[in-house]
Amino acid sequence: MRVKRGVTTKAKHNKIRKATKGFTRSNRSSIRRGKQAITKSLAYAYRDRRNQKRTMRQMWNIRINAAARLNGTTYSRLIAALKAANITLDRKVLSELAVNEPKAFNAVVTAAKAK
């Protein structure tokens, strides 16, 4: 008895069509191009999840530097002073303090300079 594969093939194609929802033209309508587009998009997603971490850290550093300069120091001097004073706040928290709680950030800078 011969094996008919229409159901399996249709399911695979529907899976690709579902994954390419929102893509343009042949990337959406053609199965072959759709597979390629999915592979490429997953590669970009993997890469950009890592690049997002890099971008966020850059933004935190910029915010900390701007706030540090308002308090009469620079980013590098502030980070060195924090390490010397054994204050273990990460850059994300420092950035949040700098933006949302300037008085608290000022207190951290003062504490770091004191030692």
Brief characterization of the structure:
The chain has 115 residues and is mainly alpha-helical. It has helices at 6-19, 25-29, 31-70, 75-84, 91-100, 102-114.
Q: What does this protein structure show overall?
A:
This protein is an all-alpha fold. It has a single domain (6-114), classed as Ribosomal protein L20, C-terminal domain (c-terminal domain of poly(a) binding protein), CATH 1.10.1900.20. It has six helices and no strands.
Give me the CATH superfamily.
Ribosomal protein L20, C-terminal domain
Going by CATH, the architecture would be Orthogonal Bundle
Q: What are the segments in which pLDDT stays under 50 over at least 5 consecutive residues?
A: none
Quickly give the structural class.
mainly alpha
Strand percentage, roughly? under 5%
How helical, in percent, are the residues? over 70%
Distance between the termini: 85 Å
Instruction: Assign the CATH topology.
Output: c-terminal domain of poly(a) binding protein
Oligomer: single chain
**Total domains:** 1
Return the CATH class.
Mainly Alpha
What's the arrangement of secondary structure elements?
Blueprint: H1 6-19, H2 25-29, H3 31-70, H4 75-84, H5 91-100, H6 102-114
Helix pairs in contact: 1-3, 3-5, 4-6, 5-6
